[in-house]
Specification:
Number of strands of chain B: 13
Distance between the termini of chain B: 41 Å
CATH class of the largest domain in chain A: Alpha Beta
Radius of gyration of chain A: 32 Å
Number of domains of chain A: 7
Strand order of the largest sheet of chain A: 1-8-17-18-16-19-20-21-22
Structural class of chain B: alpha/beta
Number of helices of chain B: 14
Strand content of chain B: 15-25%
CATH topology of chain B: TIM Barrel
Oligomer: heterodimer
Largest sheet of chain A: 9 strands, mixed
Shape of chain B: globular
Helix content of chain B: 25-40%
CATH architecture of the largest domain in chain A: 3-Layer(aba) Sandwich
Shape of chain A: globular
Number of helices of chain A: 41
Largest sheet of chain B: 8 strands, parallel, barrel
Helix content of chain A: 25-40%
Amino acid sequence: MTKKITIDANEAVARVAYRLNEVIAIYPITPSSGMGEFSDAWSAKEIPNIWGTVPLVAEMQAEGGAAGAVHGALQAGALTTTFTASQGLLLMIPNMYKIAGELTPAVFHVSARSVATHALSIFGDHSDVMAARSTGFALLASSSVQEAHDNALIAQAASLNSRIPFIHFFDGFRTSHEINKISELTNDDMRAMIDDKKVIAHRSRALTPDKPVIRGTAQNPDVFFQARETVNQYYDACPQIVQEVMDKFAALTGRQYHLFEYTGAEDAERIIIIMGSGAETAEETAKFMADKGEKVGVVNVHLYRPFSVKHLMAALPATVKSIAVLDRTKEPGAAGEPLFEDVVSSLFEGKTLGIAPYSEVPSTIGGRYGLSSKEFTPAMVKAIFDELKKDSQKNHFTIGINDDLTHTSLVYDANFSIEQPQTKRCVFFGLGADGTVGANKNSIKIIGEETNFGAQGFFEYDSKKSGSVTRSHLRFGPGNIRAPYLIGKSQANFVACHQFGFLERLDVLKYAGEGAVFLLNSIYNKDEVWNHLPKEVQKSIVEKKLRFYIIDAYDVAKETGMGSRINTIMQTCFFAISGVLPREEAIAEIKKSIQKTYGKRGESVVQRNFEAVDHTLANLVEVPVPTEVTSDFSRADAVSDKAPEFVRNVLGELMIFEGDDVPVSAMPHDGTFPTATSQWEKRNVSLEIPVWDPDVCIQCGKCVFVCPHAVIRMKVYDDTVLENAPETFKSIDAKFKGVPGNKFTIQVAPEDCTGCAMCVEACPAKNKEQAGLKAINMANQVPIRESERDNWNFFLEIPDVDRNILATNTVKNSQLLRPLFEFSGACAGCGETPYVKLLSQLFGDRTIIANATGCSSIYGGNLPTTPWAVDDKGRGPAWSNSLFEDNAEFGMGMRLTVDRQSEYARELVKTLSDKIGSDLVDEILNADQSEEAGINAQRDRVAALKTKLAEDSDPVVQQFLSVADFLVKKSVWILGGDGWAYDIGYGGLDHVLASGRNVNVLVLDTEVYSNTGGQASKATPRAAVAKFAANGKPLPKKDLGMIAMAYGYVYVAKVAMGANDAQTLKAFKEAEAYDGPSLIIAYSHCIAHGIDMSKGLTQQKMAVQSGIWPIYRYHPENINAGLNPLTIDSKDPSVPVEDYAYNETRYRMLLQSDEPRAENLMEKAKNDVAKRWELYKQMAEIEYKAVNGKKEE
Amino acid sequence: MAELKTTYLGLELKNPIVASASPLSKKLENVKKLEEAGVSAIVMYSLFEEQITHESNALDYFLNRGTETYAEALSYFPELENYNVGPDSYLELVNKIKSSVKIPVIGSLNGISSGGWIEYAKKIQEAGADALELNIYYIPTETTIDGKELEDAQVELVRDVKSSITIPLAVKLSPYYTALPNFAKRLTKAGADGLVLFNRFYQADIDIETLEVNPNLVLSDSQDLLLPLRWTAILYGRVHADLALTSGVHTPTDILKAMMAGANIVELASELLAKGPERVPELLAGLEAWMTEYEYKSIEQMRGSMSHKAVAEPAAFERANYMKILQTYDSRFKADPVIRR
């Protein structure tokens, strides 16, 4: 009997692809990374493919590289695959043309994702695969987890049989990340489907010196065209080959697929043609409507390329009168989206060829839906069918949004539902950190594998990496669950809110249907809880007649040593109340799965979870629901009424998860957004915040320096300011030289703090009466929230320090500068953001930033609100993200413009000297802008000049005014992580450094691809475990700094602020001041290191002390002065490398899993450190002589 | 030639020098060197209840943290096949050592509470250990728990461990008991076959510059011998258990004193850590030379010869403060027999 498994599509596809290939070239990109991670892990465990040999998995430096490696591996005769999405697929396109042109069988598995346009999006649509449709690859689409599993095999077999390479795609997140119960394909199934003769034939075409051939020739106008036409027969044959494979598959498994799958009334008149997960929704809706007598049907397109007119004609019912073709992509400027165009031309061709079932070509409209995982629901399908009834149908429509700008959208009735009463629907609100999603994944697996029910789980996450809200949608019931859309309003039988605080800002109960169960994690008991619920919540409970249960999960968690993880507790409650399994059985299953999940992490973990399960039921209570609403308070507004209108009306909706209702007209047309919006999103995510003790404080500024979220700040000011200070506002005599003002305050933003406690860690001042206390101590937020909010608002009103007179060469002084990067969505305790913030403090008012895709582009630029801010004059960093791979070039382009425009402006100043006046011309052209005061003086000159010339209509003056601001110094910064700098963007980075242009590169080096979940990069150090290096990285970290130093004219610094903040500050200032390329490589501790994040700075210090991370500055100007350019700022290694390394899970887990290998790699890592230290020391000691005693030109 | 043989926990040992629980036993090659050097048995380094629990909880915490929070990074580490956070690697090592050396191997278990973890005692036995040393310690900070409660719990622990194994059990004690002889007797009744005197702890030290508390463990010296020496002398003959003396054993003289006080063996750690296994032959030679010179036939002969019961003036072991004592007055003869009992 077929085994049922409950997994997501990434795993379902990887299980097949891994076993059908010999070489797998991978590169991480959301949402496809999971497939590569599974493959790498299986390869590390030496799990064989169906031929009994272990596939070789190689991580490449980019998708372009992966495609190149795939091409090479195929040419050499291996069965080869890769996994990718979005920009990754785009980078593969050049190779794909080659692979297809050479008729090479291979399958690329793609979790289809939006291609970045006006914005990046990690979510699903078909814009990536549509961009690859002309490569010559076949495109096979899957609509569900089961189909993705099956089509992974069908694609491979069809590719081998047809010699056409395949893209097998399925919708990113909606399918790739949906957990569903499916029938598993066995090795026997796969062996039965794959014809070994075809495999051998593939190998026989390989390049080998034993039977040499040449491929990849260059051809001329004489024969290229003819040669290109030779492949037609293969493409002509391909559709039938795919159908035959599908038929063979059906005979084997009972699951029959067709190139064009028809579902609906036999006599349907209205047809929707669609592919991907939306097809499943459309099919289920068509069945529902057809059962009610409506003449509707759906054609689900599986094989999109080669597009078979013949098979489409065979799929359409003869009764068809009107067709809507839905595309999950947008092709601006085209006559229609791609599937629509293919269908329209096929309808005519079918008629011409005489194979059409209809006598009259049906009226056909096209529409767009579901871009970037926009919901696509039965209600929308119904609206489209309804549209097809109309005499005048809207072509090029959109569905699922409100397009009030160009009026493309169809109106739909959101209340229309086809949900089956026998299916149970459950929605859970959780916090990322509380384990809710993990528990729900677990629950759905238990239901899927231990009952006869079908089961489905889908999970929504928000854009923040700290304090993020998760929403889980679980369905289970008889039969397969075919509903690839979220549980809708009033549709859930069970709603759980795992955090009480959510009720104060989110409409959690909108999901609850009448008579549903509501489970709340509550610190209030049965008698108290009702009075703590906002009006809206009480109203929903009363009106929807909900059954209301509570548990104090944090209390149970505390009692059982679970800390903040309430996952097993809430999971136990769910099973206890939902009754999906008998209680005893459910508890046994939870325990079984605890044993399975945590067993290898040790007995005490298992026991602790068992105890949590056992303690739960006694604490779960039903609350009698009053008949009336009694609450006297409402849910809080998402945004302060002081916020700008755009923030209130648009971004505010996104903050409370109501962004789907934002109309088209409210959105910027070109992706341009105001900065400084994170200040309006008061997230209150931390239970504890730092509190300043002025009596202990030594005013060193270290706490401000290290704060990753810029929530802790300091100011020096005149005591007259204090006249209007709130009662609890703290102040002390200032101890600053050369800074005007006699009072000093450190103030915390209570509602923005994430509670990481890095400030406490950094504080060097200890309380003399109680040494456990410092000048900054953590305290409960709730009792001081209100008063500190007032204090914060008052603090913001205090004038900032005058930048003209502030010497910023000390850490202490530098921290009086206002951060222009604040309250980002980074992890609590992030090791990157303190550097980013420092850059914003020092140079933010004159900086343009090019930001590589990665963590820094997400916490720096992900909606709803963004952290880049403005100073009191409205100036601040201007920021943009282009791509992952091109960031250095992107930044260099900015520099080129700055250089060109400032030169042009200078030329125009000279041209306009009569109007400007020769003195001012001289002052402007010869301004010294090396210091703040000089820059500000130039700003004043330019401002005065602009005022003076504002009314002048002279075209030359108008030209000048548009570029005049370039007369003021601009600083170009190029930011990114190690994945960008060491791997995918390295070629560009190298070129930009080599260009000699005045750009500043900041590499936030976490030594892994942090944003996609910790895959190894070339920055990953030896002996550390990472994804794609599950056995510990066998080779040492690439020395990017050394490579850059080799140019001799690049400023290079390696810094670690936890080890030496003054050196970090110095490096930033020197890099910016250097009139040439600068590279700063910053040690950034990271959640992916597996450390206590509050101890990140200590780890930085140990990294430096152990020699793992020597800090240095390489200043090319020294060479010209006859000095050695390299200054090593750290001392001889004094801490054993393993003392540093084994504080971190990434190293420790190897020791725990494979001690001999760990010891071996650690020994080598120590050698790496020793050798590098010796080399650096020698380099720093080399005697340099002045070049002719003159500065080099 | 003087006979150095002794017995401990029913094990026949060729001499009284046993390698104490220390990092030396973490590597098989070190154990082999110790055997070659002449130690008569080895006590393995300790399997710590606290450490096992801590490691496994920490691993779980760090592997979970940040997972399922953000759509692009649903986890941060690969899931590895297995982790040796439990006792497995320890047990493997016991097994490996046991099959590679001829001297008895004594497992060592360090814990403070009864509970599931005492299963490890059985596993150590199954791994091949010839005996088990149970290291019990507790630093009480609560004012609500009295001494009896703590002692009861420890006796219970010894009983639990003993009932889960068939190999001999030694209990390693701290010196901080109000009524050590009574407690020692309770332990032997609960199943302890031997007592090891005493555990040495890390002591908390204060750094007055950084205002931090730092753990401090310095290697012992012969001065440290005196505490266990006294209690060995007092317990000898009073409790039905073998006695191992540890702490401050550095010279042949120290070993002789221990034997005379009543110890069956001495356990050495600091001396071996400082000077390496090659120190063992020197100690043995010194021991033998002294015994030959002073015409002691065997260790057996001298054992307990200077114990509390055996010495001419037992009060010397009882005295805690300097007093001017009449040299000719022997309290033994004057004491009321009823009170003495």
